[in-house]
Design a protein that fits this description.
Blueprint (H helix, E strand, L loop, with lengths): L11 H28 L4 H10 L17 H14 L1 H20 L2 H12 L5 E4 L15 E5 L2 E12 L6 E7 L14 E7 L5 E4 L2 E3 L13 E12 L11 H37 L1 E2 L2 E2 L4 H29 L5 H26 L9 H12 L6 H15 L5
Parallel strand pairs: 1-4
Antiparallel strand pairs: 2-3, 3-8, 4-5, 6-7, 7-8, 9-10
Helix pairs in contact: 1-3, 3-4, 3-6, 3-7, 4-5, 4-6, 6-7, 6-8, 6-9, 7-8, 8-9, 8-10
């Protein structure tokens, strides 16, 4: 175990879980990640192993068949998995956000129906908020739901679904003007629907189509898709929480914990980049000695390690704040912003240490170099994080009088 990114105050159970996940990553993920990534192949065997470990139910309460663990435990597991292959952590994280939203906001019937099967990994979650013309402006959502008897009819196009093809349950955010008079603030007329579907591509249920995978620069293996609704009929009992108009707040709560986990992914990728950089620096020789003995490389390693430590500490702080029951949007925003930026910088420094070999697909750092940019935009861009941070700071430091 490396000395970097240690977490103080963990229980014996947490340490045992992390040790098990770390061993799985070292034995089952790292040896095959680059090959699978280059083929853009879904890591089914890895996912099956994670199901056996119980990771799909890590934060689902024990009464529903989960392990009932904390956000901190989950984030530390995500950090380990991302260290092996970030795409796998995305498969878990998207599922986790949907399970968290159901646990926090679902009706009792929805909890009873979905959570036990989600804990086993039999039902796999995806969530859908973004749209082709949306960007960061969630209030501009144009997909809509119209009431028709005891159902709603959904129409519209969504974008950037992680697990879009492999999932069997999608939490979809749409506009629903029912009961909300004209002039109502956009975020107060949005509703989250729990849409069950078959896995795969094409028409996966009447009125719902999942086109093929989006071809991406990195973050391969995991399926990222669009979602097209054309007369999709959803029963009224699949409105998350049972009431319309609360979808925006439910989604933002899910994204808030998601930001902690994106920070954890950044920490994991940065750790792996540091490991690769410090190892290569001791093997590569120039001018008669290992390049690690050159002061310029030592300075670079020092900066990389410091960034890994700082990002990890902020991620842990944000997770613990949420676990304590306190509002953590400031801490989550800071952790996501710092971890993603530092991840990009640490990966680039490791890439530079590798020199020309970093540009070769035979070296793992090439994959990390293509993966890191996704973290700069996932769960809100750096600019969005800075807006959140700035507004919250003004709340905390508002002048009196």
């Amino acid at each position: 175990m490396a000395r970097l990114a240690q977490t103080a105050g963990l229980t014996d159970v947490q340490q045992e879980i992390l040790s098990t996940v770390r061993d799985f990553v070292d034995k089952e993920i790292i040896p095959v990640a680059t090959e699978l990534e280059h083929r853009d192949e879904y890591p089914q065997q890895i996912v099956d192993g994670l199901k056996e470990l119980g990771l799909f139910g890590l934060m689902i309460p024990e009464e529903y068949g989960g392990l009932g663990e904390s956000l901190l435990t989950y984030a530390l597991c995500v950090e380990e998995i991302a260290r092996g292959w970030m795409s796998v952590s995305g498969i878990i994280n998207t599922h986790f956000i949907v399970a968290y939203m159901i646990k926090q906001h679902g009706t009792q019937e929805q909890k009873d129906h979905f959570l036990p099967r989600m804990a086993l990994g039999e039902v796999r979650g995806a969530f859908s908020m973004s749209e082709p013309a949306l960007g960061s402006d969630v209030s501009a959502i144009s997909s809509k739901a119209v009431r028709d008897g005891d159902s709603y009819v959904l129409d519209g196009q969504k974008m950037w679904l992680t697990n879009g093809g492999s999932s069997t349950l999608v939490a979809v955010l749409v506009r629903s003007d029912e009961g909300h008079p004209e002039g109502t603030a956009p975020h107060k007329s949005m509703t989250t629907f729990l849409v069950e579907k078959e896995p795969g591509f094409g028409e996966v249920r009447p009125g719902l189509t999942i086109p093929g995978k989006i071809d991406k620069m990195g973050y391969k293996g995991v399926d990222t898709t669009e979602l097209i609704m054309d007369g999709l009929r959803v029963p009224a009992n699949r409105v998350l929480g049972g009431s319309t108009g609360r979808g925006f707040y439910q989604m933002m709560d899910g994204v808030e914990v998601g930001r902690v986990n994106v920070a954890a992914r950044g920490c994991g990728v940065a750790q792996r980049a540091f490991e690769l950089g410090v190892s290569y620096a001791q093997q590569r020789h120039t001018f008669g000695k290992a390049i690690a003995q050159h002061q310029a490389i030592q300075f670079k390693l020092a900066e990389m390690a410091t960034k890994v430590e700082a990002a990890h500490a902020m991620m842990v702080n944000a997770a613990r704040k949420k676990d304590s029951g306190e509002r953590n949007d400031l801490e989550a925003g800071m952790a996501k912003y710092l971890a993603s930026e530092y991840c990009k910088e640490v990966v680039e420094d490791a890439f530079r240490i590798h020199g020309g070999y970093g540009f070769s697909k035979e070296y793992e750092i090439e994959r990390l170099y293509r993966e890191a940019p996704m973290l700069l935009i996932g769960e809100g861009t750096a600019e969005i994080q800075k807006m959140i941070i700035g507004r919250r700071l003004l709340e905390e430091y508002r002048l009196q009088g």
